[in-house]
């Protein structure tokens, strides 16, 4: 390593070194735009990243010792704490072999390979030539991943068959829908031949991976339970949230939140359709509420929402820097999971932040359940937070404003952003029902995610199967009884929770931390006889960079 003296210097060196090892990191950050590699997903590739994390932590200890008895200031110490927590839990997960069975329906290795292409520059013929070279490497990347899965088989570490079958279905859809060919269809004529050949190769690689999972992995995984148990669950909750949870307390709190939100939805349903249940009221809105017809039309509507939110909120509740004012609404590629998502801008803002809507084959879109979701994904949610991080990266470090993030702080902020827009009066009756539908979904996630993986009893006051043990089937039934979402969406969500333990609970528990931090800061200002300025608090909070959930409330309370 070069001559380093501070935690932030070390953190940025780690990012650069990791980008050299993992081209998905480089592309995500906007580094090395001519890089045509795909990640090495073999055991050796994972080991190289673990070795880098280990050597970085060793260097951190050396730097801290050299800092002397006074140590670093608060800025450097916050970066050091983040490095130690994030890299430490990554090494624990690697030692436990979590990477050897990482099959899920969202943000897993196969999905990440496809996502890299959507983040690449495509403005010039030269850009498309790089895309063609990278796409031609898809089979190689997928084969490297099957080596890792084979090691998992050898060590008796499996993903559950449900996750495998779901991924097989996704890969089949990618191949049958000609996704790779559709992606390059907009490329220039000068490289059309290379692009078509690369798409042919990528499609063949997709089918090869699908067949491996179908013929080799799925039979080997037979009998693997969906539930991961308390030990794996706690490890993964720390990976995704930066928190060491009291799982029983979290589950009980989630149940109380569900009950409170459900009661509020019952009252609102009566305003929308007298005498109806919340689900009946939402079914009514599906047909009689505001509806956007057409995929391009709904994309334009979501873009308009984000542009308007930026115009309204800038200078009133946030100070939004010019580069952050560009955000793009996108339609997610076919074969995506059901949930909308956000992709961050590159570190130089040459690629803007983007929100992504999976259509699930639909062409008609009720707006009641999209309004608060786009405040969550766009502005003032993910985009405002994560693009602000990019903006302040020179004052912090690239690591603190990108790779060091965990979903407790980011998804918690996005859910807080939905609540803020409700507090500010942006949600009419229809949109407020959609907001509460999102809120109850996140509360139910806490209950059923923990409940399924730890096989806990269903509360005695549950309207469905009281006293029985949570199973995927009962979780699905409970979710459907309280949600306005389609059955396809609910099915996809249950599969997501089972394949990504500890992530789905980060939304509601993260929001709890943000709200607690805001209230603590408000009280502290009052005790000092000072006026609490919400805009100043927002901007200070969004400029902290990444924090684990265990540290978040404490830091927020001091602002």
Topology of helices and strands:
Elements: H1 7-21, H2 23-29, H3 43-66, H4 74-95, H5 109-118, H6 125-135, H7 138-154, H8 161-176, H9 179-184, H10 192-221, H11 229-241, H12 247-272, H13 278-288, E1 291-293, H14 295-313, E2 327-331, E3 341-343, E4 353-357, E5 364-366, H15 371-377, H16 382-392, H17 407-423, H18 429-454, H19 472-481, H20 487-499, H21 506-527, H22 534-542, H23 549-557
Parallel strand pairs: 2-4
Antiparallel strand pairs: 1-5, 3-4
Helix pairs in contact: 1-2, 1-3, 3-4, 4-11, 6-10, 7-10, 8-10, 12-13, 12-18, 15-17, 17-21, 18-21, 19-20, 21-23
- Residue windows where pLDDT falls under 50 for at least 5 positions: none
- Total helical elements: 23
Write out the strand line-up for the largest beta sheet, numbering strands in chain order: 2-4-3
Estimate the mean pLDDT confidence. 95
Gross morphology is globular
InterPro entries: DUF885
Protein name: DUF885 domain-containing protein
């Amino acid at each position: 390593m070069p001559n380093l003296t501070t935690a932030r210097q070390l953190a940025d060196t780690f990012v650069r070194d990791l980008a050299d090892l993992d081209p998905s990191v480089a592309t995500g950050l906007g580094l090395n735009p001519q890089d045509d590699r795909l990640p090495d997903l073999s055991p050796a590739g994972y080991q190289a990243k673990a070795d880098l994390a280990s050597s970085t932590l060793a260097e951190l200890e050396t730097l801290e010792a050299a800092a002397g008895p006074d140590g670093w200031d608060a800025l450097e110490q916050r970066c050091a704490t983040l490095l130690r927590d994030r890299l430490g839990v990554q090494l624990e997960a690697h030692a436990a072999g979590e990477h050897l069975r990482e099959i899920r329906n969202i943000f897993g290795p196969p999905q990440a390979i496809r996502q890299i292409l959507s983040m690449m520059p495509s403005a010039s013929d030269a850009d498309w030539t790089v895309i063609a070279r990278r796409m031609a490497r898809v089979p190689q990347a997928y084969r490297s991943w099957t080596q890792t899965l084979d090691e998992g088989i050898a060590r008796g570490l499996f993903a559950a068959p449900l996750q495998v079958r779901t991924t097989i279905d996704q890969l089949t859809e990618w191949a049958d829908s000609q996704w790779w060919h559709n992606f390059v269809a907009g490329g220039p004529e000068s490289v059309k031949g290379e692009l078509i050949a690369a798409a042919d190769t990528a499609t063949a690689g997709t089918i090869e991976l699908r067949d491996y999972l179908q013929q080799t992995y799925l039979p080997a995984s037979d009998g693997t339970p969906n539930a991961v148990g308390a030990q794996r669950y706690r490890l993964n909750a720390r990976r995704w949230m930066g928190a060491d949870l009291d799982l029983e307390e979290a589950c009980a709190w989630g149940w109380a939140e569900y009950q409170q939100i459900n009661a509020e939805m019952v009252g609102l349903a009566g305003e929308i359709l007298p005498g109806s249940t919340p689900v009946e009221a939402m079914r009514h809105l599906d047909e009689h509420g505001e509806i956007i017809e057409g995929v391009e039309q709904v994309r334009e509507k979501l873009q308009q929402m984000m542009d308007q939110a930026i115009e309204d909120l800038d200078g009133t509740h946030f100070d939004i820097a010019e580069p952050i004012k560009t955000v793009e609404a996108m339609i997610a590629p076919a074969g995506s999971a059901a949930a909308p998502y956000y992709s961050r801008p590159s570190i130089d803002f040459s690629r803007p932040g983007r929100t992504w809507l999976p259509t699930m084959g639909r062409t008609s879109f009720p707006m009641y359940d999209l309004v608060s979701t786009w405040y969550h994904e766009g502005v003032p949610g993910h985009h405002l937070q994560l693009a602000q991080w990019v903006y302040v990266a020179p004052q912090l470090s690239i690591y603190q404003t990108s790779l060091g993030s965990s979903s407790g702080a980011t998804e918690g902020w996005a859910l807080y952003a939905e609540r803020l827009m409700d507090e500010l009066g942006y949600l009419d009756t229809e949109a407020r029902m959609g907001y509460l539908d999102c809120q109850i979904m996140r509360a139910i996630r806490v209950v059923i995610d923990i409940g399924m993986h730890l096989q806990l009893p269903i509360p005695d006051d549950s309207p469905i199967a009281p006293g029985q043990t949570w199973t995927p089937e009962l979780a699905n039934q409970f979710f459907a009884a309280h949600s306005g979402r389609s059955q396809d969406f609910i099915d996809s969500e249950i599969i997501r929770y089972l394949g990504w333990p500890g992530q789905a609970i980060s939304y509601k528990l993260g929001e709890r931390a943000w709200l607690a931090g805001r209230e603590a800061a408000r009280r502290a200002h009052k005790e000092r006889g000072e006026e609490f300025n919400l805009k100043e608090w927002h901007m200070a909070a969004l400029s902290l960079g990444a924090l684990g959930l265990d540290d978040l409330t404490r830091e927020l309370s001091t602002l």
